[in-house]
């Protein structure tokens, strides 16, 4: 039986140290982490790797349920996949595990809350952008990637995977930048 930790933040400028420390305190022998949105499963390679290598009796541990996902169906699918492999899922805050019947129900409710929270965040963001546009002060989001550097690395012969490692982003982001240049 292994305790496997999963840490996730949404953007590259966020810090994973706090989550890692909590997962270490919980006794995780392996901790995988990534910097990617939990809006969907796309691009969450570390989570997929964990799920694929779970063995009966293993336990996937996250600090909060929203680290696993922001969509109720997605969270429930992840929990189901873990259980299909004979593993359980434990959330540290609040402490809930799928080992018991009540844990299943609580995780379902927490998943619904995470999804609702995501909707509220998006709505507040849209309202704020609209107000800023009305005042004439909206300039759009700051560019998160150096498009010129990506194009230069591509021109230098690097492939998307190598560029992604050099820049510190996902391959998909590299593809999007290169595709937008066509």
From TrEMBL:
<dbReference type="Pfam" id="PF02796">
    <property type="entry name" value="HTH_7"/>
</dbReference>
<keyword id="KW-0229">DNA integration</keyword>
<comment type="similarity">
    <text>Belongs to the site-specific recombinase resolvase family.</text>
</comment>
<dbReference type="GO" id="GO:0000150">
    <property type="term" value="F:DNA strand exchange activity"/>
</dbReference>
<dbReference type="Pfam" id="PF00239">
    <property type="entry name" value="Resolvase"/>
</dbReference>
<dbReference type="InterPro" id="IPR006120">
    <property type="entry name" value="Resolvase_HTH_dom"/>
</dbReference>
<protein>
    <submittedName>
        <fullName>Recombinase family protein</fullName>
    </submittedName>
</protein>
<dbReference type="InterPro" id="IPR006118">
    <property type="entry name" value="Recombinase_CS"/>
</dbReference>
<dbReference type="InterPro" id="IPR050639">
    <property type="entry name" value="SSR_resolvase"/>
</dbReference>
<dbReference type="GO" id="GO:0015074">
    <property type="term" value="P:DNA integration"/>
</dbReference>
<feature type="active site" description="O-(5'-phospho-DNA)-serine intermediate">
    <location>
        <position position="10"/>
    </location>
</feature>
<keyword id="KW-0233">DNA recombination</keyword>
<feature type="domain" description="Resolvase/invertase-type recombinase catalytic">
    <location>
        <begin position="2"/>
        <end position="136"/>
    </location>
</feature>
<keyword id="KW-0238">DNA-binding</keyword>
<dbReference type="GO" id="GO:0003677">
    <property type="term" value="F:DNA binding"/>
</dbReference>
<dbReference type="InterPro" id="IPR006119">
    <property type="entry name" value="Resolv_N"/>
</dbReference>
<dbReference type="InterPro" id="IPR036162">
    <property type="entry name" value="Resolvase-like_N_sf"/>
</dbReference>
